[in-house]
Amino acid sequence: MLQKWRMFYMTTVTIIFSGAMMLQLPKFNITSHVKTMVFILWAAYGVIPTIHWTIRSGGIESPVVEVRICNMVKLNPSCMYVIISRFNLLLLPRVLGMYVISGMAFLVYITKVPERFCAGKFDYLGHSHQWWHIMVVFALYYWHNSGLLYLEYRMNHACPSPVS
């Protein structure tokens, strides 16, 4: 069964990728708005396997999915800053975090901040496209660390045996 789902997701992602790349060809004369929308939909498609994985893993209450926060946030009244003391966030919150970082990168890129407010001052350094690259690299680094956390969890907690 797992092999069928893997093949389904790999096929659909390949089709979406091929379609998105075809839209980049100049002979189709596709507007930038359509291209942007296709990439947004492609990113949104990543939520579907995440929801599927959550359901197949036993739902939100499953130890591998749930968010267990123990004394995560303590407010220091003298400085008013947040102290993160101890936490255990597994895959679902990490996926959402990656989407938040990527969404912020996208917003910076399309709104052209900061050069929109200070024209000419960010032509060489600090341009929104550069900030987009930095945020995307951060999102990939964050996702890489999420994979390491998940790997560590799986090394310490074996997968349940399949139900027949």
TrEMBL record:
Key words, A-Z: Receptor
The protein's name in its UniProt record: Adipor/progestin receptor-related
Species: Holotrichia oblita (Chafer beetle)
